[in-house]
Write a structure and sequence with these properties.
The chain is mostly helical.
Length: 104
């Protein structure tokens, strides 16, 4: 008979609850928000990481546009291409002598 007492007590408490579905829903949300693997804290971390990656993506896209403009400028104008080759690859004409000066 002692085994039936806790069960009957639980049944009495359950029957006295005004809205059982609301209680179940509240318990479910408490579990989901705090104890589940996809809780609020982890969702916020993921959201902030996505925001950071979006900012990085915009910066990279802007840099890519600048590089495309520079490339277009280099391959359309011979003077610009010559200047680029001289500055970055130390290209010289046959009758020139090249002196490289570096800052220490």
């Amino acid at each position: 008979m002692s085994e039936n007492k806790p069960q009957t007590l639980l049944k009495q408490i359950w029957n006295k609850l005004p809205n059982k579905y609301l209680l179940i829903l509240v318990v479910y949300f408490i579990y989901m928000f705090f104890f589940d693997d996809n809780n609020i804290r982890s969702q916020y971390k993921l959201w902030s990481e996505v925001q950071t990656l979006k900012k990085e993506k915009k910066a990279v896209q802007k840099q890519l546009e600048e590089v495309k403009k520079e490339k277009e400028q280099l391959f359309t104008d011979d003077k610009t291409l010559e200047k680029f080759a001289r500055e970055n690859y130390y290209v010289k004409k046959d009758d020139e002598t090249l002196f490289v000066i570096t800052k220490e």
